[in-house]
Amino acid sequence: MDVARELLSGNVLAGARAIRWLDDRDRRGAQVLSSVFPHTGRAQIIGVTGPPGAGKSTLANAMITEQRRRGRRVGVVAIDPTSPFSGGAILGDRVRMARHTLDPGVFIRSVGTRGHAGGLSRSTHDTCLILDAMGYDVIFVETVGVGQDEIDIVALAHTTIIIGVPGLGDEVQAIKAGLMEVGDVFVINKADREGYEATRQQFELMLHLREEARPADAFDWSPPLLPAVATRDEGIAGIIDATDRHGSKLRDSGEFARMSGRRERAQALALMGEEMLRIAMERADAEVLSAVEARQIDPYEAARLLVHRLSPVQEE
Amino acid sequence: MDVARELLSGNVLAGARAIRWLDDRDRRGAQVLSSVFPHTGRAQIIGVTGPPGAGKSTLANAMITEQRRRGRRVGVVAIDPTSPFSGGAILGDRVRMARHTLDPGVFIRSVGTRGHAGGLSRSTHDTCLILDAMGYDVIFVETVGVGQDEIDIVALAHTTIIIGVPGLGDEVQAIKAGLMEVGDVFVINKADREGYEATRQQFELMLHLREEARPADAFDWSPPLLPAVATRDEGIAGIIDATDRHGSKLRDSGEFARMSGRRERAQALALMGEEMLRIAMERADAEVLSAVEARQIDPYEAARLLVHRLSPVQEE
Do A272 and B307 make contact, defined as CB atoms within 8 angstroms? Predict the structure, then answer.
């Protein structure tokens, strides 16, 4: 099978194979990606995040359905940070999403870390590129939203949806400025629940503060705050209207292409870093490592020696 | 002030300054660490983790009190993963821990990522070494337990306490094999709550499976499962009895020193990796970066070129 050609024509088996190769660092993955890269840069990547219990997967399901209604092919990248405490929840999400698995216009992939630091971000980006090449018009990148890593990834999307929910309590609800800053569309799900009005006011205040602080040269977009009841399909069309509006504005202003370029640049640097680390680990001086393990030298001194022995890299 | 000498005599201002220097990558930090390193390797490092809502900080407080009762000086490293969703909880924890701030036998430091990947682990280790040099007998490393990063860090402790709690629901309660494997002492806090028996059985089953799977050459320790009600100070002495027993067994067998050695080795490699990355980023070829940003080449090809231009590092 000519994997590159097949995936460009939308063959899901070819797409899945390319993604697996990339995950496994099989050389064929990079080769396929190179062939299909000219056909990428078209899909709108939409990040979706929020605290556990916000009903993200139900909302994601409803948004997929709405996008399909508008005639779009939809890719989904579900990020599994392999958090020991959220395993059950994620498995549940994947099962709930299964209702779209028979629809050839929807392609869902889970991405895990497999223990690599930074691997989550790289895999997510690779998967988005493959789905983009396969012709999906919209790609949802969905996380459980528990760590900085996931937030960073979602922030790399063209459009980011932040989901809140009434009455989850301060422990999971507290949303720091960092997250408010990356959101383009804010949704309060389960808006029929008690505590909605308080949560809405809290979000509005934060959005107001953000507007006040916005630099004059920032992209001109005031994030809407939208109520939804995903289980009853309420508010979903309004959310997709908002992401459509945001997407159009990005494209019209040229910001869409600039964002995509920044993503590729970041990915290239991350891949370079991985490779440099691999080389450095492989060549780490065994003597120095033994000495630090025996506590004869301290880790800072050991690191200095290790870098020095990888000369001439350090000589500037 | 001679920071190294002062911190060895237990001066908390000197300790705080050394930790700040290390966090800021100020050269003086590494210098101080080198001077005091021969005085480290004595403290028992105890990792404490569990899902949000398990009452970790109340339990940590009670364990600090119990360690003080036994005449030990106690250091605490509280890991703040700067998760956008747990900000409130962590702030609360720190405030609750304030009751020990007037006790000169207790020294509490928070560690954050400041956006560096891997920085959490490095900072935690640095802070532990400084507290160790300051003469604290026991160092608790406490995390909110929401991500793989934090689990990895806690797993580096000599002794790891995993805290569960009845009735949190599957979403936060599901504990994967990975976490079960790193625990040395298991505690079910809030044991007076409904659902305790079910949670206890669940933990016991998992511990039983772990015992079955234990390799013959593994360290000979069967993790106890202990009930506690931290708010009423119930079960706390039993937990510290268990961590004491674990610590003694580690020391008697020589495993304590081996674990410490492995920690230093891992830290040296992490510091080397950081420095190699810094060098690579600094020297990344601007032409290649522009080309990938303009989507003229794909990120894999760009990374290959970037590594190549950092030659001769790649020439093997």
Answer: yes
For chain A, which residues make up each domain, given as ranges? 1-37, 40-253
Q: Which CATH code, of 3.30.530.20, 3.40.50.300, 1.10.1280.10, 3.40.50.880, is assigned to B40-255? A: 3.40.50.300
Site from A94, A300, A311 to mutate, B interface, most B CB atoms within 10 angstroms: A300
Was domain A40-253 assigned CATH 3.40.50.300?
yes
Contacts within 8 Å (CB) and 24+ apart, B24-28: B28/B3
Burial class (CB in 10 A: 0-12, 13-18, 19+), A183: buried
**Continuous segment of H or E residues that includes residue B38:** none
Q: Which residues of A touch B274 (CB under 8 A)?
A: 303
pTM score: 0.76
pLDDT in tens, B130-144: 999 999 999 999 886
Q: Which residue has the higher pLDDT, A96 or A121?
A: A121
Q: Is B48 helix (H, G, I), strand (E, B) or coil?
A: strand
Tokens of B295: 């989507």
